[in-house]
Amino acid sequence: MAAAAAAAVGGPQPPQPELPAPGLALDKAATAAHLKAALSRPDNRAGAEELQALLERVLSAERPLAVAADSEEAAAGGGGGGGPGAAEEEALEWCKCLLAGGGGYEEFCAAVRAYDPAALCGLVWTANFVAYRCRTCGISPCMSLCAECFHQGDHTGHDFNMFRSQAGGACDCGDSNVMRESGFCRRHQIKSSSNIPCVPKDLLMMSEFVLPRFIFCLIQYLREGYNEPAADVPSEKDLNKVLQLLEPQISFLEDLTKMGGAMRSVLTQVLTNQQNYKDLTSGLGENTCAKKSHEKYLIALKSSGLTYPEDKLVYGVQEPSAGTSALAVQGFAGATGTLGQLDSSDEEDQDGSQGLGKRKRVKLSSSTKDQSIMDVLKHKSFLEELLFWTIKYEFPQKMVTFLLNMLPDQEYKVAFTKTFVQHYAFIMKTLKKSHESDTMSNRIVHISVQLFSNEELARQVTEECQLLDIMVTVLLYMMESCLIKSELQDEENSLHVVVNCGEALLKNNTYWPLVSDFINILSHQSVAKKFLEDHGLLVTWMNFVSFFQGMNLNKRELNEHVEFESQTYYAAFAAELEACAQPMWGLLSHCKVRETQEYTRNVVRYCLEALQDWFDAINFVDEPAPNQVTFHLPLHRYYAMFLSKAVKCQELDLDSVLPDQEMLMKLMIHPLQIQASLAEIHSNMWVRNGLQIKGQAMTYVQSHFCNSMIDPDIYLLQVCASRLDPDYFISSVFERFKVVDLLTMASQHQNTVLDAEHERSMLEGALTFLVILLSLRLHLGMSDDEILRAEMVAQLCMNDRTHSSLLDLIPENPNPKSGIIPGSYSFESVLSAVADFKAPVFEPGGSMQQGMYTPKAEVWDQEFDPVMVILRTVYRRDVQSAMDRYTAFLKQNGKFPGNPWPPYKKRTPLHPSYKGLMRLLHCKTLHIVLFTLLYKILMDHQNLSEHVLCMVLYLIELGLENSADEESDEEASVCGPERCHDSWFPGSNLVANMRHFINYVRVRVPETAPEVKRDSPASTSSDSLGSLQNSGTAQVFSLVAERRKKFQEIINRSSNEANQVVRPKTSSKWSAPGSAPQLTTAILEIKESILSLLIKLHHKLSGKQNSYYPPWLDDIEILIQPEIPKYSHGDGITAVERILLKAALQSRMNKRIIEEICRKVTPPVPPRKVTAAEKKTLDKEERRQKARERQQKLLAEFASRQKSFMETAMDVDSPENDIPMEIATAEPQVSEAVYDCVICGQSGPSSEDRPTGLVVLLQASSVLGQCRDNTEPKKLPITEEEQIYPWDTCAAVHDVRLSLLQRYFKDSSCLLAVSIGWEGGVYVQTCGHTLHIDCHKSYMESLRNDQVLQGFSVDKGEFTCPLCRQFANSVLPCYPGSNMENNLWQRPSNKSIHDLIKEVEELQGRPGAFPVSISSETNLSKEMESVMKDIKNTTQKKYRDYSKTPGSPDNDFLFMYSVARTNLELELIHRGGNLCSGGASTAGKRSCLNQLFHVLALHMRLYSIDSEFNPWRKLTQLEEMNSQLGNEEQQPEVPILYHDVTSLLLIQILMMPQPLRKDHFTCIVKVLFALLYTQALAALSVKCNEEDRSAWKHTGALKKNTCDAEKSYKVLLSFVISELSKGKLYHEEGAQECAMVSPTAWSSESMEKYLQDFCLPFLRITSLLQHHLFGEDLPSCQEEEEFSVLSSCLGLLPTFYQTEHPFISASCLDWPVPAFDIIAQWCSEINSFTERHAEQGKALLIQESRWKLPHLLQLPENYNTIFQYYHRKTCSVCTKVPKDPAVCLVCGTFVCLKGLCCKQQSYCECVLHSQNCGAGTGIFLLVNASVIIIIRGHRFCLWGSVYLDAHGEEDRDLRRGKPLYICKERYKVLEQQWISHTFDHINKRWGPHYNGL
Fold it and tell me: How far apart are CA 1740 and CA 1527, in angstroms?
């Protein structure tokens, strides 16, 4: 909406001021100056009125409002002033002029800035800004710095990181409330208030008059523009329109704030002055416009559910006397109506839209809360109303920034914070209704974090504005809108309500900003203390927490699978963690010392009350409802954590804060239910509930949740166990885990509550739980450092971890002030104590590894704690992984060879308050269970496992370790058995009970059980049986009955008055604990004690009779020093021995009894009768075992076959290699190359009609083009000055050369004088496997029909090799031919060079020199053609067509021999740029050049070369000179000295019929070497200066007639110089020539070196070619002798050549015709060209042929340098900063990834660049992610990062923001893959990019 339009335009005009109107418009400056003068007078009333009138007119709001109301018409009819835009600008101009008081506005700004005491930075930023956080300097965890302040400060060695702001923020530099002063940057360190002069009064005088009107004007627009959204249509559009129109105004205000402190204090005065506000906005007075706007304001207030407190009564509530809390004034709440009716309109429509179906929301009508908080708003200043509209318009970014920019002003900060708090409830309401709640949340937090992180401010607001009351009330109110009835326990009668997790409020985390503010203020000690002292607040808070108690209830599906898996559990866990647990940790962090005991007592008291209310509300008696579980018990967890804190830090007596026994029994039920449910979920009893229930079980123990969930639960159970009757507790556990019926001596039993298949895992679960309960010490006495160490060891034992994953996996108290901060000193020191760092290793082609930490040996030895591992594993496989690693450690160190059991670890001593926990280990119930289980295991009853035995032994050992030393009266207790009639064991001490023999046991068994029949004869002798029963020795045992009995006892004891309460549930539910089958009683004869069972177990485990021999009989020492390392690691046998030794140590009786048992030689255990069912399972096991063995054998056989196959396959690929073994024995005549087809497995030769082919990958490559002529790689530009220009790359130089030739010479001849393919050349590589081409076609067909998503595109011919899975896209046919022929062709012949030259010429001229069949269409020729098509299509057209006449055959010709050139050059690069290493090709035997040559040669021969110009003739024959004069009119052909010799070589070879004869090859090489040498001489002659030339000309001329003149370079050089002097080549030696002169004089050595270096590249390529064509090995040599070795290998050097004197390159020459004649002929061609173009002639002669290896750009050491430069760099195309900037690592170009701005013909910029720069291969560094992405053709993959942090880890997406450093090894690997073209093979995860990158 327009800002202010001058009233002069449109509308009735108010009376004019004294000045004439035209003058006004013309001269604003004069008016301003006049007014300023008038106002400076002492009596300024007149001036003030005049100014008011002027402003009234300039800023009149009438005109623009019409615009807002209906902008279309206004725009149409807006005559004068050119529409609203002009008017608003006019108004702004006026304001600027008036502020400056007649001067220039810019000067005014500068003047004000001079008075800025910049002590604070206060820079405000919005989302996605990159900022820093330093934990070392921060006082508040939310502290943040802008990049500039961070880099200007000194943070070396600090714990800092860079982060991307999510919600926006502001820089805290200079604010000592939030950060330590040592971290301030250089600008803000100076406390500069002292030396800043005082602001002159008249400078800002005008501002004080103008700004109030301006801000009022803004408010009027906001009032006018707002229309209450209609019920159905959200009006975001309209609001945004208003805001867009207001943009200039708000920006103007924002600019004012940036003028510094002086202007900010004026603004503060204006915004907070109540009188100004009253005068301007009251809506009284005669101005109709103001009246209207005031009405709109009132309507807006009302529609927001707020009252405007005209009424004095309510007004009193707004500010109760400061001391009392708002809850003290509850009396007034009634006046404004209860919450229930309050917001109904908005609730109903939300409810309708949600469609929640069956569960209706519950409304609470709570008159308990202070209503005024929710409903009263009274605005008393501009600031307050501005904030009101900011909220109403849902926090527009501009407004937020303006309000925050003012914060450096202290007075404003306080006023604004109070205003914010006053509007808090209103903010929540707006947020709840908002459609853009995410954006809005971020903006709210953006503001609140600045206000509440400051402790001083938070304390002030808490005291003066009831901040805590407001926050708690607002949170409670917010949650009340989504409550439903709880279905836990008693569904019908439950009175409890819980939040509904499916509600948008929870699902979208809408409550997040409010909760985060609450957590933020609770981190301040002064505020938290207020909270903990205020009983009313605690009650309200517990009320709030109870809304989450029991939410997201799961009911077990028993019949069919649930049809819809709800995902609400995410919301539930997040809500409990954020809304309940984090405030709890915040409060706990202030309860650390003894003086804070009172706080803990308060919390515990109200927590227990809330729990009691909850039990009553859900009607809970003593049995939990079956088949339901909730993981959310925040009240239990509050209670537990405050108890733990009380004992650990506040020295509180535990019993003083514990409730009575009955309450404890209730408290333990639900946490225990969760533990049992975890076991059920892991036993697959909840599968019908879908995967989400597993998700819940995993989240419950996951590292971010465990210390707020499972840890408090287990601690609470430990507390209950330590205070309740142990027998009751133990029997409750087994009953909850549903395994009571299993604990019988009988071999068969009936379980009424559990299926047989779940019994075993539930029993394991119950025992494991008991072990954890009894051995975990997290809250029972461990110090923080010990806890940290235990957590770390547990995580490292599961797997090696990176530093960041360790930080993530180790639970820290979520409150940052808790002390154990990740990365803090203790973390690092503990880490270095328990783990070793494994630096990342790199194998090329291996996966990218990261730096890992691995446990030290002594940690495995002494600290590995299986219990902690089990507690902390999210996946069961991690426990196994830890055990496997432990086993490996023991094997490696020779400590134990077999499969060890989890080691028993000594525990930290218990805190005295929890001593009662150990009574569990010394209660008869547990001993009976242990005895029973040992007996059952010994008797091989079903459903028991080694795990059960392990846990049983663990519990026995725990009991022995923690036995009470009451065995002084050992001897007295011998007569024990006679006395105990009521139960199995005499006492409750485990040590004594171990030796107690149990003779008979009465059991209830099904009638079918074997025991019944077995005992029948015994029952005849009634006397024996009777006597047994009388003596009471046969015990029957029922856990359930025990538990009932104990429960009644406890209840009676604890509540005598509650005796008469009927408890019907108890009796009815447990009528008969197994009523289904007919049970009968049998009596078993046992006659064992725990000790005897253990000894028999030892025999059973070791498989030998009498295997146990008491060790102390040999070595009495053992009893004195019991800690024996021999026993610390081992399996079950070791465990039994260890236990027996401990038992013997604890009592002499036990020792004696053990010895006795061992003396009685135990009779062999009779073989049991195996029942049919057991037999079945045994057979099954055996069968499985056999199947497994068979499978192993098969696999091994397969592997060996594959291995031998791979070996032969690698041997046979190319026919010219050694003949495969099995053929070598046969007759020599039939040695035709044999190929194996990897698809059909047959082997045979490649034939015309069924050709075989090599699997190849064709790819376009520009690697060669990236070679430069210096060895230093270019650096990546990191400043504007550094730019990379590609003039000196190989590709650029070749391009220039070709275009130069094409300018002056005949096109067809130019295309034969060079090679292309430096950019976009086709590189062919193979994995070496062969297949029949018809097999390949059917393979492709099957791939096409395969629906599986592949990483490649079959339609483009891509596939993976069927054998080795290497990526490929074509098949190269193998040419039929035999190895024998090869040998014939290689025989040296003694023909003279002249004969050979003739033969070569004849062969080239003979077109049909191929086998006849090829000319007719055979399969082979078809395949050859199709592969040629593939090769052409591999690269883009622009890299194939260089001819001026498109589509000319010369193009194809050039392209084909260039393919050969590209492949040879690349192989040379792969060998490191020279052939010194020699040997076979680096790719091993996997080269396909031979086959490639055949294909190319076949196609080259189809084009007959222009017979007048066959270069061969020019090389080998003298021509008559006159023949050249005739063709002046057309362009001449390229002089032979300008030809590229290597290209000529390839043309000659490919024009010959294949296979080629060795002597022809040598002949061609000799002829070409002569030309090359002449070129070298010519180039040398151009390089040196005039004097040198004339000197050489002389010295050479003298020797011209000596015998070997043709082989002396001096003679030849002088001849070349004299010939070329005839033309103009050496003329025009002006100043520019001097640049070419080499400063040193040429010595003969340096000349020789120059000539050799000039010729070497040719020799290398030729030797490689010879190696591939004739299969000769390359000799290896030193670098100095490379020239001589290669030339002799090529046959250029005569064999009798002596090597004593220094080697001279000229001795390799072998001239086909007299040297001087042919040189003269060649030079004359150049002379005729240089007549006209001397400069170009010279340039063309000097060919730079010494290219260095290609490199990627050199990267800086520290990643930050790249990031800081590029992440703000603007894109060259659209001048915006790209969202995802990227840099090409080959050429340094800056590109936008996925940037739509730079899209061209549907190709995004990266894809486009990859085609232009790398012919389809692009390597880009993504600046914002530090990751490298590879684009290859139509696919891409994330390669990884070459920057690692100090711990050797990547930081993808810079999430952690730690400093990153270049990892040279990784970068080398990347470069290696680029050069060797192996991206496709090594990187696995490719996907299509659809041109969208």
Answer: 22
Q: Which residue has the higher pLDDT, 530 or 1269?
A: 530
939-948 per-residue burial string, b: 16 or more CB within 10 A, e: under 16: eebebbeebb
The residues pairing with 1244 across neighbouring beta strands, listed in sequence order, are 1235
Distance CA 1616, CA 1575 (A): 10
135 neighbors 823 (Cβ within 8 angstroms): yes
Contact assessment for residue 1828 and residue 1836, using Cβ atoms and an 8 Å cutoff: no
Q: Which of 1649, 1566, 1659, 1657 is nearest to 1609 (CA)?
A: 1649
Q: Which residues of 595-616 are buried (b: 16+ CB within 10 A; e: fewer)?
A: ebbebbbbbbebbbebbebbbe
Angle at 1545 between CA 1541 and CA 1549, to 5 degrees: 170
Q: What is the dihedral of CA 943, 945, 951, 956, to 10 degrees?
A: 80
Q: Taking phi first (over 0 means left), then psi (-120 to 50 degrees means alpha), and beta for anything else, what does residue 1694 get?
A: beta
Per-residue model confidence as pLDDT tens digits over 819-839: 344 445 688 899 999 999 998
Which residues on adjacent β-strands are paired with residue 1371? 1255
CA 443 to CA 440: how far, in whole Å? 5
Q: Is the pTM of this model over 0.85?
A: no
What is the three-class DSSP state of 1863? coil
Instruction: Tell me which of 1553 and 930 has the higher pLDDT.
Output: 930
φ, ψ of residue 536 to 5 degrees: the values are: -60, -45
| Phi-psi label, residue 1542: left if phi above 0, alpha if psi -120 to 50, beta otherwise | alpha
For residue 197, give the DSSP letter: P
Residue bearing the bigger pLDDT, 544 or 79: 544
Could you tell me which of 986, 990, 946 has the C-alpha nearest to residue 965?
990
User: What distance in Å separates the CA atoms of residue 1216 and residue 1556, rounded to the nearest whole number?
Assistant: 13
Asked whether 767 and 706 are in contact (CB, 8 A), the reply is: no
What's the rounded Cα separation, in Å, for the pair 948 and 934? Answer: 9
Burial of 1477 (0-12, 13-18, 19+ CB in 10 A): exposed
Neighbours of 557 (CB within 10 A): 16
C-beta atoms surrounding 1015 within 10 Å = 16
User: What is the C-alpha separation between 636 and 632, in angstroms, rounded?
Assistant: 9
Pick the closest to residue 132 from 161, 171, 166 (CA basis).
161
**What mean pLDDT is predicted for residues 1080-1106?**
84
- Contact between residue 1094 and residue 1135 where contact means Cβ atoms under 8 Å apart: no
What separation in angstroms does the CA of 369 have from each of 365, 846, 1591?
A: 10, 65, 111
CA distance 1475 to 1683: 10
How would you classify the pairing of strands 628-629 and 554-555?
A: antiparallel
Q: Facing residues of 484 across strands?
A: 498
Cβ atoms 937, 743 nearer than 8 A: no
Contacts of 674 (CB under 8 A, 6+ apart): 629, 630, 631, 633, 700, 713
Contact (CB, 8 A) for 674 and 602:
no
User: What does the pLDDT look like over 944-966, one tens digit per residue?
Assistant: 889 999 999 999 999 988 876 55
pLDDT tens for residues 1226-1283? 333 445 678 889 998 888 888 888 889 999 999 999 999 989 887 788 899 998 888 8
Above 60 in pLDDT, residue 1393? yes
Adjacent-strand bridge partners of 1006: 1079
pLDDT for the residue numbered 1: 36
Please, how many CA atoms are within 13 Å of residue 289, restricted to the half-sphere of its CB?
21
What is the rounded average pLDDT of the residues 1742-1768? 88
Residue 1892 neighbours by CB distance under 10 Å: 15
**DSSP summary character for residue 1078:** P
Amino acid of residue 475: L
Please answer whether residues 244 and 256 qualify as being in contact, where contact means their C-beta atoms are separated by less than 8 angstroms: no
Residue whose C-alpha is closest to residue 198's, from 267, 107, 261? 261
